Each structure stands twice: as structure tokens, then as C-alpha cells.
Amino acid sequence: GSAQAKLPAPEGKIVNVAHRGASGHAPEHTIASYELGIAMKADYIEIDLQMTKDDVLVAMHDQAVNRTTNGSGYVRDYMLEELKKLDAGSWFNASFPEKAKPEYAGLQVPTLEEIFQRFGRSTNYYIETKSPAAYPGMEEKLLELMEKYHLTGENGRSGKVIIQSFHPESLLKIHELQPDIPLVQLISRPELGKKANEQLEQIKQYAIGVGPNFSNINKEYVQTVRGHGLLIHPYTVNTEEAMKTALSWGVTGLFTDYPDVFHKVMKKH
Ligand code: G3P
Ligand code: CA
Question: Which residue has the CA at smallest separation from atom 10 of ligand 1?
Fold first, then answer.
């Protein structure tokens, strides 16, 4: 083995985050996909947020419904009642016939509240504020719902919910409103080498970790992040080989469409 000591993850165990649920197996951001993620032993279910015309937070990656439903247009232009009529599962059956299941047809776009109602405190949530500039009030709505489902306070501090965003202003707003909620700064292209330090110093002011694109980082970067005492959860790591590489670099967790594969890799780690 290597002479280098393995750094312990500051928060303990290395986390397996089911990206959009177990989205390699089931239609992303559906209750079925989250249930499968949990069944596959994910520690967190990952949820991207968009907001309807009547200001309801819903789970969807894109701003438009076109890719993942049978509808078209922006979530922002849909009343929840209309959005609920869309089929969020049949596209998956059509795109991935080898993974298709009849029960995926007709699945609905879940609201964040429905997700909290379904899973309560039985799982952990890794929630992303998407396009916050397009959705004024999104952060307040999110915190309100977290309060309602008892996911703040002690549960907040313990990492029951991690809030992530590519947008620092969204995280800073949350940090101001509820400073004890753990935040992760997503970064598509992090500064590498010596320049990383300055960027990480900034992020440390409000976040407990970073979520970089796995394609744009290296071992040195992971070690630098760990040296700052920050968590590092790269996205989206889908092959066994890439997972092993990520672990060998010292990541403290990762986002994957295949939580079953990562669970297996971790057992041998
Ligand atoms: O949230 C981590 C990762 O999901 C960021 O990329 O585009 O899949 O939301 P995206
Ligand atoms: Ca995401």
C-alpha cells in the first residue's frame, strides 16, 4: 500500500448519494427512483429543485419539462395542478427499454413536500437550489418546508439535510437565514493547483464542503480540499473504476446514478 496516511472523513463515514434517486435504474426524480436509491443503501437521496407558477417546489433537474415528461415548456409556467398531469416515467421506458418497467409509466413529478411526507426522517436529503435567480423566494420556501417536517435545528446540524448549489448567492442567503444547515458549494471547474486555496478559503466562510465535477479534478485537488477541513463529494461517478479512483484520492463521498455499485465498491474499500 501507499505510505500516505488515509485522511479520516471529518463527518465520519464516506457518503453514497443517490443522484436524482437511483437514476441509472429508474426515471430520475420520481418517488420510485428515490425508493430504489434507499433500497440500494444510499445515505442520501439527491433532489434538484424547480418552482411552479404557484410557487410550489418540485423535484426536477431541468428548467423545462420536455426531457423528463411528456409535456413541454418551463416549470415556471405550470400551475402545480397542470404539472401533476404530466407523465414523468414513460420517457425512461422509451429511452432505456432494457430497464423499462410498466409501473414507471404515468409516474408524477413529486413536490418536495410529497418527498418529505413519503420518507420523513428515514433517509437523508441532499437538496439543490437550481436556477435560484429565476425563482425568487425559493430558499425561503425550502427552509419553511424543512421546518414543517422537523428537518432543521438538531436534525439540520447533524446533516439530515445538506443544501447544495452552483450559485454562491443562494447558499449565502440560506446561511444568513439558518446558519446551522450544512451547505455544499457545487463547482463545475474548480481552480486547481495553488489557486485552489483562495477559492476554498472563500467557500469555507459559509459551506462545509465542495461538490466538484469529477472530470475536472485530480488527487492533488482532493487532498487540498481535505487539508482545508472541507468535505468533497464529486459528481457524477458512475463506473466501478472511477469510484475506486475517487476513493483512492480521498473523497468523503460521491454522487452516483448507481448507488448499488458504489455500495459494493465501498464494502471492499
Ligand atoms: O448536484 C450534483 C450534481 O447533480 C450537479 O449536477 O446537473 O446533475 O445537477 P447536475
Ligand atoms: Ca444536482
Answer: 61
